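At this stage, I wrote out one protein's amino acid sequence and its backbone structure tokens, and that material follows here:
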Amino acid sequence: MSTRAATAPAKLSGALVESVKGFVADHGGSATAVLQPLGRIGVRVTLVGADGVLGDRVVADLDTAEELVGFVDGLTESGEWDRELTSVVTPRRGHWAKMAGWVARQTRFPKARNED
């Protein structure tokens, strides 16, 4: 019997697996993954932690995304963005600005509802 930690399968990079494991650990010990194909670019794996915080990673294809979900303890897959999942999402402070790009620097727009 080996005492070595399980290593990621060949398709999954160690850095990818460790970052997702870290996200799961930092956000309540469990997370839900929504797999969203991006065309030739790959598949976005959007993570929703148990505390509602969002994260994401992009992988090469759907098989790799499904393998990632199956490999990381505490990570489950949701087939779609449903009401139950979207109701628990609470983006971290500043997330809206990161996603908005240049628009976030505008002064005429109201702040996001979770910003003070």
